[in-house]
Amino acid sequence: MKTGRAIVLDAALVPSGQGTAVSFVVVATVFLGLFLLGWRVLARQFRRDASSASSAS
After folding, report:
1. Taking burial as the number of CB atoms within 10 A of a residue's CB, which of 9, 11, 27, 40 is the most buried?
2. Three-class SS of residue 20?
């Protein structure tokens, strides 16, 4: 039985038989996580700032 890491690494193999560097997979995952989740955090913060500014007036 394969571990989760082995399954991910097997899925990262390109059809030519060459492997994908683990560091690339890690960096891509971190970048996409920050990109896909980060904008939501910023949007929530701006929305909170805007609502508090309008309620203070």
Report:
1. 9
2. coil
Q: What does the pLDDT look like over 3-41, one tens digit per residue?
A: 666 665 566 555 556 788 899 999 999 999 989 988 888
**Is 1 or 31 the better-scoring residue by pLDDT?**
31
* CA–CA distance, 8 with 56 (Å, rounded to integer): 50
Please list the alpha-helical segments (H only) found in 1-57.
4-11, 22-56
d(CA 39, CA 36): 6
User: Residue 33 and residue 30: Cα distance in Å, rounded?
Assistant: 5
